[in-house]
Amino acid sequence: MTISTTSFNFVREVVRAESAIVLEPGKEYLVESRLLPLARQAGHPDVDAYVGELSTRRNPGALKLVVEALTTNETSWFRDSDPFTALRQSIFPTLAKTRSHREIRVWAAACSSGQEPYSILMTAQDTPELAGWKIDMLATDLSQEMLDKAKAGEYSQLEVNRGLPATTMVRHFERSGLNWKINPALAAQVQFRQLNLVRPFPPMGKFDIVFLRNVLIYFDLATKRDILRRVRQVMAPDGHLFLGAAEMTMGVDDAWERVPAGRSSVYKVREEQPTCAR
Amino acid sequence: MTTGTAPDPALVHAAFEQVWGSMLFTAFEPWPADAVPELGPGVQAQIELRGDWNGRIILTCDTEVATQIAGAMLGAPAEEVLPDDDVHDAVGEVLNVVGGSVKGALGGVMSLGLPGVTEATSPPSPDSSIIISWYGAPVFVEVVPDAA
Amino acid sequence: MRALIVDDSRAMRRIVGRILSDAGYEVLEAGDGQEAIDVLEAQAELPALACVDWNMPVMDGLTFITEVRKRPEWRSITLMMVTTESEQDRIVRALAAGAHEYLIKPFTGEALMEKLDLLGLLPVPAGDLS
């Protein structure tokens, strides 16, 4: 059984509006299979009934689940807000006391269309302790298409509406036709590079901060463990790793320790590596 | 008198496309070149742009299509019968959002009027319109500069 | 919590109203700035939030925001423009007049929720919607 054209079209437009990702005809199976668990959870016999209710209720929380089920890319600015608050209030000020060369190295390891690295840079600019500092920002993604978009720094009206405070928007963006273009000086601070997390990393040096959010969930346990092990090797000894809100290192790679940071938490490499289990 | 440049059809097209997807949850389909657009008794919505360029964007479609557009925008259940006022209001708001997007993209000093919606009296000329296909029915969009 | 939606379009009030009531708000409505002032004056309990369109008959949204900011007893209301006006200088003007946030039409429901999150006005934190 496949879903009706009406259901598919509705889901396609919701996903396009929220994420700029287009589900081409032929992806009905994908929609059906990804949404069936959500439909069942919501008490519907099939996806059509579920989408029917979605299209009349338009509950943003439910629509968000649909978009997340169908996309692997993140599109919000300052996503989840807490990590950025933690950067501004504690992590950046702490690093500012310990880095005599006035430079902080950051890696956004799954940068998608660029909202995350740009949000980190904007946060650094809002941190008084970092006035006059350089942020050496590397942003990588598997998709060259996403990297090209990130580098161009041009976003639709729908994209700039997502989580970007109005004051930040007028400070860092200029109107470009129907779209908004990020300040070129900000874009020039990011080095964009294609990188597959599953493969050995190229030489990159050590990072003070790594964002690896909402990407491990797509890998199996062995791959997760391998990625976290290799990320450890590119961390400065007092470096901070950010994972997605629903992700953790516990039980995957216990060489990491979870430390509280504001309302959320970050991960640091344990000073003493745990020995093998007895 | 009109001094600035009229909005480019590609811009108007793109503004509709954005509104169609995000407000109506419907893919924007251009009218097929080989089909003849026919219009029944209809609804006409217009919005004025004033400033560097002076003119109007006008949307014309038949009553049934207008009702469906309003229903899609509101997420109205199929059994809900929308009164004419609500249909006119919804179609007017669609055009208001398109008008604002177009105005913002044009830049310069411009202001936007309030949308007006009436019964359509005469069908627009297909030659001077962007025509959108609403599930096989035509929606006419015209960009009309003020007479000099 | 209560929210006031000020928009001359009934359709837009219904759309924004549904999102806000799903988020746990009790929704009040007004069709223009003057009506919104009348609604506020009649309330024993002020809304925490007002979503305000710009272009409206009688009194526009910018004037309404300016009027609200003149009244100390209405200081507690968080003001968000929700409008198709999208030039940079319009946003700056609205913020200067006292708007706390600015959401440009067209927007998606999630964008509205994220703005509420920014304003600390989301009864349920964004991450916990499931």
From TrEMBL, chain A:
EC number(s) on file: 2.1.1.80
Pfam families: CheR, CheR_N
GO biological process, one term: methylation
Top EC class for this record: transferase
Reactions this protein catalyses: L-glutamyl-[protein] + S-adenosyl-L-methionine = [protein]-L-glutamate 5-O-methyl ester + S-adenosyl-L-homocysteine
Methyltransferase found in the keyword field: yes
Annotated keywords: Methyltransferase, S-adenosyl-L-methionine, Transferase
Cross-referenced CDD domains: AdoMet_MTases
GO molecular function: methyltransferase activity
Occurrences of domain CheR-type methyltransferase (ranges): 1-272
Record InterPro entries: Bact_Chemotaxis_MeTrfase, CheR_C, CheR_MeTrfase, CheR_N, CheR_N_sf, SAM-dependent_MTases_sf
Keyword S-adenosyl-L-methionine attributed: yes
Domain of life of the organism encoding this protein: Bacteria
PANTHER family linked to this entry: CHEMOTAXIS PROTEIN METHYLTRANSFERASE, CHEMOTAXIS PROTEIN METHYLTRANSFERASE 1
Name this protein carries in UniProt: protein-glutamate O-methyltransferase
Species, as recorded: Nocardioides caricicola
Automatic annotation (TrEMBL), chain B:
Gene3D superfamilies registered for this protein in UniProt: CheC-like (3.40.1550.10)
InterPro entries per UniProt: CheC-like_sf, CheX-like, CheX-like_dom
Pfam families per record: CheX
Record keywords: Chemotaxis
All residue ranges annotated as the Chemotaxis phosphatase CheX-like domain in the record: 43-121
PANTHER family on file: CHEY-P PHOSPHATASE CHEX
Name of the protein: Chemotaxis protein CheX
Species of origin: Nocardioides caricicola
Lineage: Bacteria, Bacillati, Actinomycetota, Actinomycetes, Propionibacteriales
TrEMBL record, chain C:
Cross-referenced InterPro entries: Bact_response_regulator (IPR050595), CheY-like_superfamily (IPR011006), Sig_transdc_resp-reg_receiver (IPR001789)
Keyword list, A-Z: Phosphoprotein
Protein name: PleD family two-component system response regulator
Keyword Phosphoprotein annotated: yes
UniProt domain Response regulatory: residue ranges: 2-120
UniProt entry tagged with the keyword Phosphoprotein: yes
Organism lineage: Bacteria, Bacillati, Actinomycetota, Actinomycetes, Propionibacteriales
Top-level taxon in the UniProt lineage: Bacteria
Gene3D superfamilies: 3.40.50.2300
Modified positions (4-aspartylphosphate) in chain numbering: D53
UniProt xrefs under PROSITE patterns: RESPONSE_REGULATORY (PS50110)
